[in-house]
Amino acid sequence: MAETTTKTKTKSTEAKAPVKAKTHYIDATHLVVGRMASLVAEKLLKGESVIIANCEKAIFTGNPIRLRELWQTRLDLRPKGNPETGPRFHRMPDRIVREIIEGMVPFRRERGVQAMRRLRVFIGVPATHKANKWETLKEAETPRTKGYISVQELAEALGYNGLRN
């Protein structure tokens, strides 16, 4: 007669302590937006929190005139739909960066929604976070490039006037 073995699961009687997620404080000054966004999206999907400051000082590489035209074309699509239902294209630097990061996570699924809740993007450094140690992402630092435009300059070209709604 052959012996059969069954696997039994044993439940631990110990209560598991909640794991506190690591928080990354990132200074976006002179970081390439796309590279920074992909690294931040990776951290968010791992369950870590990310706070980005000075998002207006991050840069897009390429011909500044062409970049303005591309974003303005995108903004001009707005009147074709219902203005109340969207699509909504943002002009504020923090919302531009947030939207780019959102495009790199599965934002329509629960995992992506939870990831985006762990993200904070600020224009400048908020007073509540000044004491924190800010890090930079070496992989996203600006290469020696001739053509670039900052998020602030792009936002102003799209109509951002420095005021918060």
UniProtKB/TrEMBL annotation:
InterPro entries per the UniProt record, alphabetical: Ribosomal_uL13, Ribosomal_uL13_bac-type, Ribosomal_uL13_euk/arc, Ribosomal_uL13_sf
GO CC, alphabetical: cytosolic large ribosomal subunit
Keyword Ribosomal protein: yes
Transmembrane annotation, as ranges: none
Keyword tags: Ribonucleoprotein, Ribosomal protein
Molecular function terms, GO-annotated: mRNA binding; structural constituent of ribosome
Short name of any one Pfam family annotated for the protein: Ribosomal_L13
Gene3D superfamilies documented for this protein: Ribosomal protein L13
One GO term of the biological process aspect: negative regulation of translation
This protein's record includes keyword Signal: no
Function of the protein: This protein is one of the early assembly proteins of the 50S ribosomal subunit, although it is not seen to bind rRNA by itself. It is important during the early stages of 50S assembly.
Family label: Belongs to the universal ribosomal protein uL13 family.
Subunit structure: Part of the 50S ribosomal subunit.
Protein name in the entry: Large ribosomal subunit protein uL13
Organism: Candidatus Iainarchaeum sp
Gene name per UniProt: rplM
